[in-house]
Design goal:
This protein is an alpha/beta fold. Helix content is about 20%, strand content about 25%. It has seven helices and 14 strands. The longest helix has 18 residues. Bound molecules: zinc ion.
């Protein structure tokens, strides 16, 4: 069910950098080099809409630079609202390829594309990577393990749920690439966030993408508050009343496509008792490991051997 239609990128597809889909603007005064990315997964449309609208609005950085990237255009070109999952990628998941060894092997379209994008990612001080989710659910900001990104989530004051996680076993995400994954002591000035804006096909995912872009650009200093209000009217939504940090402790990896949940979990359920059975992994009951365990992004949509189907998290009130 896709209420959100794919944007016609039109003239914005070309980019202005010599790399298709990548736009870069420099300010006259120094400042943070900021990058916003979308379509790392070809069926995640809200970020593409937000970037297109930023380009249409003629947004330019007040300082530093701004890079806007439509990432997996090959997959996006195959988007079909009746089979949304099919255009997540062409050959393999682009958001698992961000290690030098994989980027150097031009064996798949996603690796070649990621290698072309890599200089822009490494040239950014702050990165916001816009995604959406397989299932309906509240937005999630994924901050990785480094405290500097959790602190930025608190500064942004939205969304309400912030996931502290180490990523996936089957590869490295763009937001964990290179210096973004170095310790705070070595990289005090870099930040990278991945926002899951809600369900892929939901119009509200675009509201979240706009809100996150505006907050991120203002917090980075790329746009002044006044410029954001004028050029992006209505983009910023009210702050979240409270924010929870969800510290991911365990990932449940499917043994096969036969993985099932015991209920139709939506995500962010708090399971009171340790040892509660929440699913069946090829005959093995899947139990929560501690009291007040939060379920993060449960989904069997992509389930097959080796794919994470849910993560467990301890919650902490952030603000
Ligand atoms: Zn995604």
């Amino acid at each position: 069910m896709f209420s959100l239609t794919p944007p016609d990128l039109g003239p914005w597809r070309a980019g202005n950098t010599g790399v298709e889909g990548v736009w870069h603007f420099d300010a006259d005064v120094p400042g943070r080099r900021v990058m916003l990315s979308a379509l790392v997964h070809g069926n995640e449309l809200c970020g593409a809409w937000a970037l297109k609208e930023l380009l249409e609005a003629g947004v330019r950085p007040a300082c530093g630079s701004l890079t806007l990237a439509f990432c997996n255009l090959d997959a996006f070109d195959h988007f079909d609202a009746n089979n949304g999952d099919a255009s997540r990628f062409v050959d393999e998941d682009m958001n698992r390829q961000w290690v030098p060894a994989r980027l150097a092997q031009a064996g798949t379209r996603e690796r070649r594309r990621a290698a072309a994008l890599a200089p822009f990612v490494q040239g950014a001080d702050w990165l916001l990577d816009l995604h959406s989710m397989h299932e309906p659910g509240l937005p999630l900001l994924l901050v990785g393990m480094h405290p500097r990104n959790l602190e930025l989530a608190r500064q942004l004051r939205a969304p309400a749920h912030v996931v502290v996680d180490a990523g996936h076993r089957d590869g490295v995400r763009m937001r964990d690439y290179g210096r973004f994954n170095e310790p705070d002591a070595d990289q005090p000035d870099t930040r990278s966030l991945l926002v899951e804006c809600g369900y892929h096909g939901d119009l509200a995912s675009l509201d979240v993408a706009r809100d996150q872009c505006a907050r991120f650009l203002v917090t980075a200093g790329t746009l002044t508050e006044a410029t954001a209000q004028r050029s992006l009217p209505g983009w910023q939504m009210p702050d979240a009343a409270t924010q929870w940090a969800l510290h991911v402790t365990d990932a449940v990896v499917a043994r096969s496509e036969g993985f099932t949940f015991s209920q139709a979990f939506q995500g962010l359920e708090v399971i009171a008792k340790a040892g509660t059975v929440i699913g069946d992994n090829d005959g093995e009951p899947v139990k929560t490991p501690y009291d007040d365990c939060v379920l993060v992004m449960p989904s069997t949509r992509q389930a097959r051997q080796g794919v994470t189907v849910v993560r467990f998290a301890r919650r902490e009130l952030l603000r």
